[in-house]
């Protein structure tokens, strides 16, 4: 039997890497998305290959609808129909709202929210036709509770939750589940690069007194992609060490 195919957007960051690795360990053929001519891509691909992971690199700007349609076609032609989609691509452009400019708003909304339409619109109809699919959207604790200095990011990640719940209702009879994960602070390179005193303040604000591990997010994606999670749809799963409980 041929292996199932998973596409992960924003695959080459800390969370994306853990998600790709978890799905590959589960036997998926994994397509790892990045921006066109993404400078870290060759090094990332080589590092993953050295660890035993043979990912299929696929370039596309997720804010470009036509590029996302081409990406879906490329992956399908190279690997087969896409069974699992992880919408993980995301950026931050933090600033208190009075000083936030329209470019910062548009960039974050485009990458973190409009991308969900662009990528999912190209892939979900095929899942529905085949009677199976797993769509997993990566939101954030700050999309659940809000965060000062992140009006653009919080709005986009909150929009991700509405997108998830509405699409889940449309696809529930088609064998396609749609769920969201809302991570808190995870020990990725981006978080670990925060100035030490600020990072320590963040850590002590987490009831569990630690940052999450990327593989904990990867493991949750792995579960939601599995047959065992077939009765879960429209869910938002908080994984934040107790920062916010809902």
What does this entry look like structurally?
The protein is α/β, with parallel strands linked by helices and 246 residues long. It has a single domain, classed as Rossmann fold. The chain is built from 9 helices and 7 strands, in the order E-H-E-H-E-H-E-H-E-H-H-E-H-H-H-E. The protein has a 7-stranded parallel β-sheet with strand order 3-2-1-4-5-6-7, sandwiched between helices. Helix 1 (14-25) crosses helix 9 (214-225), helix 3 (65-79) runs parallel beside helix 4 (102-130) and helix 4 (102-130) packs parallel to helix 6. It is globular, with a radius of gyration of 17 Å.
Task: Summarize it.
The chain is α/β, with parallel strands linked by helices and 246 residues long. It has helices at residues 14-25, 41-50, 65-79, 102-130, 141-145, 151-171, 189-192, 196-205, 214-225, and strands at 5-8, 29-34, 56-59, 82-87, 133-138, 176-183, 236-239.
Strand content: 15-25%
Mean pLDDT: 96
Question: What is the CATH superfamily classification?
Answer: NAD(P)-binding Rossmann-like Domain
Query: Structural class of the secondary structure composition?
Result: alpha/beta
Second CATH tier, the architecture: 3-Layer(aba) Sandwich
How are the strands of the largest sheet arranged?
3-2-1-4-5-6-7
Order of helices and strands: EHEHEHEHEHHEHHHE
Number of helices: 9
| Tally of domains | 1
Assign a percent range to the helix content: 40-55%
